[in-house]
Design goal:
The protein is α+β, with helices and mostly antiparallel strands. Strands 1, 2, 3, 4, 5, 6, 7 and 8 form an 8-stranded mixed sheet that branches. It has helices at residues 2-12, 14-38, 87-101, 118-128, 144-152, 200-228; strands at residues 47-49, 59-60, 73-79, 107-114, 137-142, 165-172, 178-179, 195-196. Strand 3, helix 3 and strand 4 form a beta-alpha-beta unit. The chain contains 6 helices and 8 strands, in the order H-H-E-E-E-H-E-H-E-H-E-E-E-H. Helix 3 (87-101) packs parallel to helix 6 (200-228). It has 2 domains: 2-42, no CATH class; 47-228, Glutaredoxin (3-Layer(aba) Sandwich), CATH 3.40.30.
Length: 229
């Protein structure tokens, strides 16, 4: 009897039921779009520095000289002369960011190191590769002046220590611009140029979100370009 009454109600009010079904079907989708457009106003992650230097002059751990920031979404870090002492940074980035995005075309990790740290870098890459394909992890080697010049091109309020290390990881887009936050309440001047990779919570709660925004921007731009062709 209940079934009969329900069917009668549906048949008697087709317009109302269409509205209800539409809300049930499209509601979650609209909410998701609202979240995307509401967070950062889907405002692009701010460009903090334009024209970061490229890394073509650095020697790659694979012997290739074709590694470039240009045309790629890059996560860059500087692990210094003793990268194994700072492997927590790389492991945090590997677990929270790399494994989710490495399949995205042109997404790569760039670890900048001074010459002489090759053995440590090889061991670190083996540890990173124990769980994931690390083909998009690039360890690059250069002189101390090359490392410092590259870092200075980021134009941040951060410094490398005497061993050419910083705890910060950086997001650099396909146009070789440094991306970050310009109104971050946790930073003294509101500017977040880099993300503390020693802190799993910072990587998970802040950096992941910002990488998602940059990747989403990139996808939207790609779709727009395809429509215009």
């Amino acid at each position: 009897m209940f079934k009969t009454l329900f069917l009668s109600s549906v048949m008697a009010k087709p317009g109302r039921n269409t509205v209800i079904l539409s809300i049930l079907f499209f509601g979650p989708l609209l909410f998701y779009i609202f979240l995307l457009t509401g967070t950062n106003n889907f405002a692009k992650l701010p460009v903090l520095t334009t024209g970061v230097d490229d890394v073509k002059e650095f020697r790659s751990d694979t012997g290739s000289d074709s590694v470039s920031l240009d045309g790629n979404i890059n996560i860059m870090c500087f692990l210094g002369r003793e990268p194994l002492k700072h492997k927590t940074n790389a492991l945090n980035l590997n677990e929270k960011i790399y494994k989710h995005f490495y399949g995205f075309k042109g997404f790569q990790f760039v670890v900048v190191l001074p010459e002489g740290s090759e053995a440590d870098a090889e061991q670190l890459k083996k540890e990173l590769g124990a769980t994931y394909d690390v083909s998009e992890w690039h360890f690059l080697f250069g002189s101390e002046s090359q490392v410092r010049n590259l870092f200075e091109s980021l134009q941040t309020n951060i410094s490398l220590d005497e061993k050419l290390y910083t705890q910060n990881a950086f997001i650099i887009d396909r146009d070789m611009n440094l991306r970050g936050r310009s109104e971050d309440d946790e930073m003294p001047d509101g500017m977040r140029y880099g993300y503390n990779a020693e802190s799993i919570s910072t990587v998970h709660q802040e950096m992941v979100d910002d990488v998602k925004v940059v990747v989403a921007e990139d996808r939207l731009a790609l779709k727009k370009n395809k429509r215009q062709i």
